[in-house]
Each structure stands twice: as structure tokens, then as C-alpha cells.
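Write out this protein's structure.
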Amino acid sequence: MEFLTILLSGLLALVSPIGIVTDKIIAHNLRSRLNKVEQLQVRVDNAPSYQLVQGKVDRVRIAGRGLWLTPDIRIGALEIETDPLNVDLQRLRQGGQKSPKAALRQPAQAGVRLALTEADINKALQSPAIMARLRVLGSRFLGGSPEAYEVLNPRMDFLGNNRIRFQVELRQKEAETTTLLVESGLSFTAGHSLKLMEPSVSVNGRSLSPILIAGFSEGISRRFDLRTLEEAGITARVLQLKIDTDELGVAAFVRVDASNPSSASITGARRS
């Protein structure tokens, strides 16, 4: 929804006496919400041009490289391409930016591609938010309170063939360091549920039992099930997940449905 707010705010230029080009406003709004941007291009396509005044846009294309969400989290590449948009500009101007979906006259949908490098992910693993999550993960395997653990040397390795290896060291006060190693393939079931393929989990080189690994896998699938977003009116579908030795790439489709004013939904499947 944050992206939708940025995108639609650019359309407000059409009812502004300044008459700034919409492409530039959308690009500026994106840059202002990111910590850092290395490359960014925005193009708004429309024919005939008078449709813009009516809040209609044929297509918006966004391509960026090196997009820093925070000082620690970087997206290597991002591409977004929308289908035609139809927006009630007056409603948007009167407060629709707080709930941009309410200004849509018809569903807004887009294809999304993003890429993350191994270096991007390993830098993100050092962020305070992810370190906190790793402490929780460690406490689930080793017991005790997450606050009792210190996280050391978290690392992700891309193995190719859609497989990854994750390793982290966890240390409690006045205790030896414990090494947790997880290796697995990744896929999405029906485009919405992350699934671990042939996972293995070991603690200090000792493999966990298949029962514990199965429970861990089920927990991951539940936590990363995109259908949970539907409760907030958001649905998403992953069309392709590809992991080689250099890069993790995702292609997805999103849809914001304006049929119900109280919610947004992103559904379906779109061209990859």
C-alpha cells in the first residue's frame, strides 16, 4: 500500500496548477521515502493525454537498482509495471492518500520483479531488526529467552538450484557458542506458501530429528504464507522464485481491488 500511495500521489500533479510531469513526481516521492537510491527511472504511458486529467493512466513503469530501504537493507534491482489505472482524483485529493485504495475506480494491478544479491542479504542480517528475529529463532531451537542470546556471524550462502545455506552462532552468557546450520531448497506452493525443499538442520554439527525438522518447516510455511495478507485485503502471488549462486530473483503479481471500500486485495497471477 505504501507503493500505491507514492504512485497515486504523483497523479495529483494533474490537478495542480504547477503542472509538474507525473513521472518526475513519482520518482521524487520514491526517492524521498528511501534511504538511498543508486538508479531510478519512472515512465508514465498514456494515450490520449487528456485521459490523465480524468485520472486514467495506461501504464506506469518503474525500474530501480540499488534501492536502500534502510542503511542496512538494499534491494539490488526492482521493476514494477502496472496495468491501466483509473483513479478518482477528487477523492484522492480529499484524503485518499491515507487510504489510496478508496480512490480507485477499478482494480489496480501490477507485475513486480526484484533481485537480491548474497551480499545484500548478508548485510541485512546485521540489522537490529533481523538480529532480534534471529535471537527468537535461536531460543526456539535451544530454549530460554531470546534476550539471553547474543547473535554472532549470521551468514547466507546461495548454493544454486534454488537452494540456500544459512549459518549463525548463538551464545548465552557464560556458555559456549552454539552453531545453527540450516540448508534447504525454496519454492512457493500455488504461488502463496513458502515451502522448504529437502531441508536439513543441525546444531553444533548434530542433525536434528526428522520430526523436529518437519515441525520447523511447517512453521516457516505458515509464517510465510501470503494468504495471511488477505485478512487486511491484500493478496499476492509469486510467479517465479530463482536462486543461483549470485542472486535471488522473484517475479510476482499484485492486485489492489477497489470493489470493497474497507479493504484492499492483491490477487491472481500475471505474466512473468
